[in-house]
């Protein structure tokens, strides 16, 4: 029975979670929210995390009704992510490890999402669609690795949604993607946008540039002026949000279905912050149903970045014998999903 505390702080959310033998004991989180039209800068985000993380650790212990002596391992997000926020979590984890005399483990952020999704849903060996503000990957497990079958070749799907939300000056509370999702429900007119699938990979940067011009034709007045004027006359914000979601989600469904066919799988698991989107879940569910498969999805408690997913993945690593020398407890902004040896799975 392993009791693990996990710290996640790779982007604008800082979270602390505690899990014991698969039982969720605590999952607390805070979000750094900027004004409408603005993103979050690394140093300002790290400052926010520093101001709240110690209170979150205390809150998690209180919610879990345990003492530090009850813990078996301290886990933190090693990467990928933004360096300054990552360092906040790593420094606090190192300090707690020394203070409480507990082993320390660095966890891959992407692996945390995958293992949390598998644990909560009970999915056995699904094709995984990992969609967030920093990552877009189609993944399948094979021979002790989570293999990437397809991914974005430029920006992540969540980044595309967030940046368009800034163009429209939508609030960042609770998140830009959520507010686009709500506005899209009011859209009725589908506007053709670039559809960019290249084999198993996708591209979102061109779609973003195109829809930004439709939202504000003055951004590039000399490019396709007549077309933009014609499109912009019917391009209401709700219609643009609706069209953007329909297009980029269709691209994700396509490459996920292709991975299912290649692997002979009948399960799909959606993880990552964008995985909360109900329209994406519905579109993916229709595809799975037509193939006789099953969709697994989780709600915002576990989809959005959280410390619990780091605690759970770290606990699985710890139970399988993984150990990390203290001098290796650094962070890295680039840490691919398929770099991790999955020692805790035997299938």
TrEMBL record:
UniProt-listed Gene3D superfamilies: 3.30.420.40
Co-factor binding comment: Binds 1 divalent metal cation per subunit.
Swiss-Prot/TrEMBL catalytic activity: L-threonylcarbamoyladenylate + adenosine(37) in tRNA = N(6)-L-threonylcarbamoyladenosine(37) in tRNA + AMP + H(+)
CDD domains: ASKHA_NBD_OSGEP_like_euk (cd24132)
Name recorded for this polypeptide: N(6)-L-threonylcarbamoyladenine synthase
Keywords: Acyltransferase, Cytoplasm, Metal-binding, Nucleus, Transferase, tRNA processing
Major localisation: cytoplasm
Pfam families per UniProt: TsaD
Catalytic EC class: transferase
A cellular component term, taken from the record's GO annotations: EKC/KEOPS complex
PANTHER family (UniProt xref): TRNA N6-ADENOSINE THREONYLCARBAMOYLTRANSFERASE (PTHR11735:SF14)
GO biological process, one term: tRNA threonylcarbamoyladenosine modification
Domain Gcp-like, first and last residues per copy: 24-311
Compartments (UniProt record): Cytoplasm; Nucleus
EC number: 2.3.1.234
Single GO MF descriptor: tRNA N(6)-L-threonylcarbamoyladenine synthase activity
InterPro entries: ATPase_NBD, Gcp-like_dom, KAE1/TsaD, Kae1_archaea_euk
Family: Belongs to the KAE1 / TsaD family.
Binding residues annotated for substrate, in chain numbering: 130-134, 162, 177, 181, 277
Co-factor(s): a divalent metal cation
List of residues binding a divalent metal cation: 109, 113, 130, 305
